[in-house]
Amino acid sequence: MNQHDATNETSFAGLDDDSFDIHEYAIEDFLTLGIFWLLALDVFLQFFSRYVLGNSIAWTEEMARYLLVMVGFLGSTMAVRKGSHIAVEFFYRYMPMWLGRLMATLVDLINIAFFSIMIWITYKLADRTSAMMVSVDIPKSWLYYLVMLGFILMLVRGVQVAIRHWRTGSHELLNSQE
């Protein structure tokens, strides 16, 4: 009873390994981080002015909304690069490997087509928008162009991921099958 069994001990050996490798990150990671901190600063300024000073700064709420949209679209670019968007993995577990590869390739092609279509739609929307933001003198079309930039980056990363999948013959969805 007093003897320790080595197989029952919990190991915390890997928990202190907080190594940072800059090569794991891309330009959109740093851009998203910068915009995220602008968003945090904006929300803090909004909170401070409203609850400490008693008079809210008008432009902070609108800018927080637009910064959040930018963080969302640039964050989606990171998810495309890493292959971490939501996917239904259930069916891949019960498919034969050849059918799983075919379906994964089809998903890559649909992603590329979707991003391409969304680039066109956001371009047309931005081109037709002439309104200004409510609290600052910035055209709303700039926001749509930033969304379009997010889709362009997603398209570039989507093509890179599809090429990687095609060359290696593997896919994140198929790895759960093995």
Walk me through what this model shows.
- This protein has 178 residues and is mostly helical.
- It has 2 domains: 27-82; 85-177, no CATH class.
- 67% of the residues lie in helices and 0% in strands.
- It has helices at residues 27-52, 58-82, 90-94, 97-128, 141-168, 172-175.
- Helix 1 runs antiparallel to helix 2, helix 2 (58-82) packs parallel to helix 5 and helix 4 packs antiparallel against helix 5.
- The longest helix has 32 residues, at 97-128.
- It is globular.
- The chain starts with 26 loop residues before the first helix and ends with a helix.
- The model has no long low-confidence stretch (mean pLDDT 86).
- Pfam families: DctQ.
- It comes from Vreelandella sulfidaeris.
- Part of the tripartite ATP-independent periplasmic (TRAP) transport system.
- The complex comprises the extracytoplasmic solute receptor protein and the two transmembrane proteins.
- One of its GO terms (cellular component) is plasma membrane.
